[in-house]
């Protein structure tokens, strides 16, 4: 019986295993050193905030794996001998496979800051990170101040978590405005104000110089690069992005760049070895997408696609139109298609921007300057229907059509009626002044 070994029990690896099982009776082993069972990584913050217990983050009961004949092995793969199709574990045992899938996800970036390995300094990615948060930042008596370094989506999540326990937070963001490498200016500025309104000490255009050790190798303060200011703290969150977790492949024949290099079929340079999820890097980027996408849903899609290939129906990975969603404290964010920030915005891309007077809701629609074709939309504080925008992007609708049919796309009509006419009026005004 063919043996499929999957290294990593995140969303990609587990989706793959489930779909192979639906399609076949192959032998499947999922290998992980992180946790006994699959859990939803995106839900970790809600455990810390007291909305759920850790076991609630596990989508499947513990008996699910045995019942579906999926073997789980807890262990760390030290190296892979692809010539002999053998995995060697840190625990010094080994396992042979017929097909191998690397789905090891990401790890938080470290940039060689002095003190980055001290106690109380960590990212927010793994179950272990959650456990360490409870040690170093359980309340505002043990943790009198926390510092967060890096202004992406994980940074804002961590700020919200610490804020929920009344721990004062200083937030160091390298950019001149929050997440402005991704968000257009109006949205980025709105989020700056929203963060400050939550009494978070947001420091823009600010870099970390070093982390200072107190007694017992625990963090006691940080130094700011630009000013030399020292900020006392008991916890430092490193949230300046993530990189593929693939250091264990160094000695193998599997080709890597930042991630494990794959083609459109998620195949590596070695026969019968594949990579999916955050650790996979497309040799040629798909459309405007980045070669590596550390996004939950693309990991799931890769798992579903590769299961077909492994079970004899060779399928190309086609993620379709870009979309994503997140939360900035109380403001929900959704994006469909492409809306570029200042950096990387193509010449042909123009924006229509509307913001509500309460400063917590806004919308930016990107369109083609010459043809008016709808390119993408960002919404903050307004929920939209994915399938509607997906359809409009495929149909290449124009800006007028989108503005005049927004009510169709809205997820919550009662709630939305207040803004619909306002957005249209603002749009018509813009047209007249242009």
TrEMBL record:
InterPro entries: FAD-bd_OxRdtase, FAD/NAD-bd_sf, FAD/NAD-binding_dom. Keywords: FAD, Flavoprotein. GO terms for molecular function: oxidoreductase activity. It comes from the Bacteria. Its cofactor is FAD. Residues 3-283 form the FAD/NAD(P)-binding domain. The keyword Flavoprotein applies. Gene3D superfamilies: FAD/NAD(P)-binding domain (3.50.50.60). Pfam families: Pyr_redox_2 (PF07992). Belongs to the FAD-dependent oxidoreductase family. This is FAD-dependent oxidoreductase. It comes from Mesoflavibacter zeaxanthinifaciens subsp. sabulilitoris.
């Amino acid at each position: 019986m063919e043996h499929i070994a999957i290294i990593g029990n995140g969303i990609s690896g587990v989706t793959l295993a489930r779909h192979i099982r639906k399609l076949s009776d192959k032998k499947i082993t999922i290998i992980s050193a992180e946790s006994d069972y699959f859990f939803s990584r995106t839900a970790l913050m809600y455990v810390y905030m007291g909305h759920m217990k850790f076991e609630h983050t596990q989508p499947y009961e513990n008996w699910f794996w045995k019942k579906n004949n999926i073997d789980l092995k807890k262990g760390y793969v030290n190296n892979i001998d692809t010539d002999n199709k053998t995995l060697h574990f840190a625990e010094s045992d080994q396992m042979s496979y017929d097909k191998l899938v690397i789905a090891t996800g990401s790890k938080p970036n470290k940039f060689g800051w002095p003190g980055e390995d001290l106690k109380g300094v960590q990212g927010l990615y793994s179950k272990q990170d959650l456990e360490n948060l409870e040690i170093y930042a359980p309340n505002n008596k043990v943790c009198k101040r926390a510092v967060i370094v890096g202004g992406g989506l994980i940074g804002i999540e961590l700020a919200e978590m610490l804020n929920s326990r009344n721990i004062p937070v200083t937030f160091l963001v390298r950019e001149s405005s929050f997440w402005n490498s991704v968000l257009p200016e109006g949205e980025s500025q709105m989020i700056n104000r929203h963060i400050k309104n939550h009494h978070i000490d947001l420091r823009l255009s600010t870099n970390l110089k070093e982390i200072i050790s107190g007694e017992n190798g625990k963090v006691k303060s940080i130094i700011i690069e630009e000013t030399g200011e020292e900020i006392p703290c008991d916890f430092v969150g490193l949230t300046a992005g993530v990189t593929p977790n693939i250091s264990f492949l160094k000695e193998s024949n599997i080709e890597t760049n930042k991630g494990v290099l794959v083609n459109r079929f998620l195949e590596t340079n070695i026969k019968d070895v594949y990579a999916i999820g955050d650790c996979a890097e497309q040799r040629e980027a798909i459309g405007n997408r980045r070669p590596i996408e550390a996004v939950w849903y693309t990991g799931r899609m890769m798992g579903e696609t590769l299961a077909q290939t492994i079970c004899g129906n060779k399928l190309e990975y086609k993620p379709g139109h870009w979309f994503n969603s997140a939360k900035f404290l109380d403001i929900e964010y959704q994006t469909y298609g492409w809306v570029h920030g200042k950096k990387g915005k193509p010449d042909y891309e123009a924006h229509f921007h509307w913001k509500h007077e309460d400063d917590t809701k806004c919308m930016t629609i990107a369109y083609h300057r010459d043809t008016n074709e709808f390119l993408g939309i960002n919404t903050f504080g307004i929920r939209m229907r994915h399938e509607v925008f997906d359809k409009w992007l495929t149909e290449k609708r124009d800006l007028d059509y989108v503005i005049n049919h927004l009510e169709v796309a809205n997820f919550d009509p009662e709630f939305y009626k207040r803004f619909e006419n306002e957005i249209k009026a603002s749009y018509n005004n813009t047209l007249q002044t242009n």
